[in-house]
Write a structure and sequence with these properties.
By secondary structure, the protein is mostly helical. It is built from 26 helices and six strands.
Length: about 725
Amino acid sequence: MKDISDKPSDKHTNYTRYTVKDIKILEKRLRDIQSNLEKFENTKAFLESEIQAKSGIDKYNVIQQLVITKEEIEECLNERIICEQRLHELKEEQSSNQSQENRESVDPTVKDEEPKNNQDQSSNENATKDEKENNEHKSGSSESQSEQDNRKQELKRNLESRSGYKDYYNRYRDFGGKHNVQQPVDRKSNEAIKIESLFKDSDSVNESIKTTLLYVATFFEQLSVQEFNRVVTFLLEPQIVTIKVPTKLHNEKGEEQIVEVLQACQLADILSADPQKQSLLMKECYLEASRLKDARKVINFSLPHLRKDAKNVFEKDYAPYLEKQFKRVRFLLLDSSDAIVFNVINISSEMAVSDPDIHAYSWLKCLYRVVEKYESIYKNLSYLDLTEHQKYLEWEESKLDSDEKEELILFNSVLNLSDWEMKKEFVLWQLSTLIAKMLEYPQVQDEVNRFLDWAINEGDKDVVLEVIIPLDSVPNFDQIYWIQQLLDRSNEESVLFKAQIFLLFKLAESGGSVYKYLQNIYKWLPKKNLNPDKFSSKYALQFIFDYSREMIDILELEDYGHWPSKYNLFVFPKSLSIDSNLEMLIDWIFHPSLKYILNRGVTIEYLASNLLKDWFNILWGFRKDDIPDEAVQISKKLLGKVVAVTNRTQQNELVTFWKRMEDDLLKDANKLSEQSNGKFNSEAEKNRKRFMQERTNIRCLKSQFKELQKTKS
């Protein structure tokens, strides 16, 4: 077997062959990048339109997706820049190589001297073949050298002006779909950047400031310049350093001299007093203000990979620092900036995963206590004269321990007490949003539930309800369960009323999901014939009547008899069992324990007869014919379930009530005729016909019910 070194070779033709191959790969990669960009841009446009239509947790999730999409777009743009630069370089190399080959073909002395042996002829044949192959792929060789240089400089200027790529990657090592990129190079030192070096400085003050700048840039993405500075200042405020300050003093002889005096200063003051110092330190940290595609200017690392590298360093070598910063930065959850809050929620969730007990349970508990304290203070201040406010606040502060005092000060630094009445809803909403994010992590869910359990037992139930309400569509959260806990463990009338109203509206808006919620509330019912001892059991017994009546009141008359029905209880998705859910409804309205909560003189049969009458009117409508087949089938099933769960005495009472309703409707119809005095009144005539048709519906209902009674007998 011949050694590869024995093969004839031509360094120019071999190099050209690989250059042509790389050019083809790069051109294909650029087409793929353009295709991906178009997809991401379409996704971005869709998400931006969705933000306007969403609210609450749904809006937060869309914003998260939008941020991810924007990052993907930025990565594509950066990759395209690298590919375009490399493609340009390769084409220049190809052009230069072809020029060299042309010179060699004219002047043979330019060629490298080769040993003359039996392989000369085949070598020349190969060279000729490669030359032809190279000429087929020739590109831009006709350009003058000056034109090429101008174009190269123009591309270089474009590259340097792009966001995040002042120092750009030199080239891909492998273009087979893997982004195996060389280390970025610092132009000053021509050495690969070591991320650890960005944290170090010979001056301890500068090192502290740089660490804070890197922390904010790493964990707070896409902050505007003003937002970035605000977070940096907030984190530097408690950091005090001792520095030497030149000071004029007089010696014993009365002569003035300059001496350096040690003085304690806040790092925030040092930085704000010298903007040039901040600019210099940011440059040393590879931080810059770059413009996004939507024209917003934000603080970013000039080399995108540095954020990931910095995060690894923080998590590996600066764990105590992260803990200390989080104790302060978490209160920025209440900041007015959406971008800051978004990042704080992400930081809080990541910290909660690392230590669920401290950073989930304890943090939620701390935030809740501060909210509760603010609420209490604000209520009490409303009863005092303005002159007494400061004295009262000092008295309240004296009752706090050092940790509580620090928390209240931090809270007040981002949210002024005077704004509490307007900001309370916002604060509770942010607390709900934080809980929703934490619930995405299985290892944190138990701590969130533990916090809610503590809050219901120890805290203000009204505040708990306000926190729970926005969580209705959050995965891994059983809202119905926590509403039940509030009903059973609260004796505050306002809380009970709000919880009941919320449940009614929640189910009213649930559409085809109503039975999923009804099945949960049905579980609250007491065992049959037992006097309910829990408030949730009492409420559940009457809930089906309240909810049904609420839905009837908002249903338009023209929607009676319409199919598919617009009445929630008759909306059955294919996945639902109609029979089992109708059976649950009938079992509910005839539950024996209802007798313990009804007013004197009101019977179960009276309530049920009225509700069944209304249901049949909704199914059949007020037309003499054209009743939908589906409505007929459901009405028969309903009556069959009634006959199955009631005894003969109850059935006779139902029939008696329906007979009275027939008579009352006939009286109402005749009364309208008498009032018209022979004069035609379209509205009165319309109502009279409806009364008569409703009477016909009840007669049909009664007739079908009697037939089913006979069948059962």
